[in-house]
Amino acid sequence: MTDPLRTELLDLALEAARRAGALLLDGRPADLGVAATKSSPVDVVTEMDLASERLITGFLADRRPEDGFLGEEGASTEGTSGVRWIVDPIDGTVNYLYGLPAWAVSIAAEYRGETVVGVVAVPPRGETYHAVLGGGAWRNGERVACRPSPPLESALIGTGFNYVAERRAAQAEVARRLLPRVRDIRRSGSAAIDLCDVGGGRLDGFYERGLHPWDVAAGDLVAREAGALTGGRPGRAPDGDLTVAASPGVFEVLQPLLEELGAWHD
To answer: Short name of one Pfam family for this protein (predicted)?
Structure first.
């Protein structure tokens, strides 16, 4: 992959995320409601999710019509260029619906199956994270790095819960057993933000079961480029069974512990 292509993809992702973030901040209707549901009645889509995805995919397709897309709200095309955009138009939709500030726009670019660019814009914080494969991780133009690894009992760990009741109950049991072994657990409601917060030094680690490619593609690259380790079950990449990200010393202890606790199954 050439450096000019990498730069082009980053610039486009940053601009698409900026435009979508402005739409979501300035265009949120006072009476915002649920437009549809997905995996369960509490797993919601708003009209602004749909508008944000249309804006992002339209902007990118106008400039790179041969690229493919995978979007949370239905965008799916193969493309012929070797580039595929992975888009979460609002990561943290329930937060956005309720007016809570933990939501983000997540855009990643894959080239021939490998994530090479990731952008996570967090408009309520006034922050944008970005990473390029091999080029480090950045927040508002300043380089970031994960925290030095503490002992697990002093680690602050992020997690999330699925919207399907049976899976949520199993995840709650894992959290109950993990909680006495760490400093504390945080649940922001946005996996993209949590992954970036691992990279930016605001969390020591993060794990969650049931995530999708659009939830993790950009944030995973940010975390890795900031020096964190990421994976799924031992020996596997992050996937729908389990996503884990942490500073190296925490990861080496947390990943096998999550395997022991059964964080990868319901």
So the answer is: Inositol_P
CA dist 59 and 57 (Å) reads 5
Beta 156-159 vs 205-208: how paired, if at all? parallel
Helix (H) or strand (E) holding 143: strand 142-144
Listing DSSP states for 78-110 in one string gives --SSSEEEEEEEEETHHHHHHT-S--EEEEEEE
H/E segment holding residue 144: strand 142-144
| Sheet of 184-186, strands arranged across | 184-186, 156-159, 205-208, 243-246, 229-231
Q: What is the pLDDT along the chain (266 residues), one digit of tens a residue?
A: 789 999 999 999 999 999 999 999 999 988 888 887 777 776 668 899 999 999 999 999 999 999 999 998 887 899 999 999 999 999 999 999 999 999 999 999 999 999 999 999 999 999 999 999 999 999 999 999 999 999 999 999 999 999 899 999 999 999 999 999 999 999 999 999 999 999 999 999 999 999 999 999 999 999 999 999 999 999 999 999 999 999 999 999 999 999 999 999 99
Residues 37, 44 contacting (CB under 8 angstroms): yes
Q: What is the DSSP letter of 123?
A: G
* Angstrom distance (rounded) from CA 104 to CA 83: 23
Place of tokens 């009645």: 41
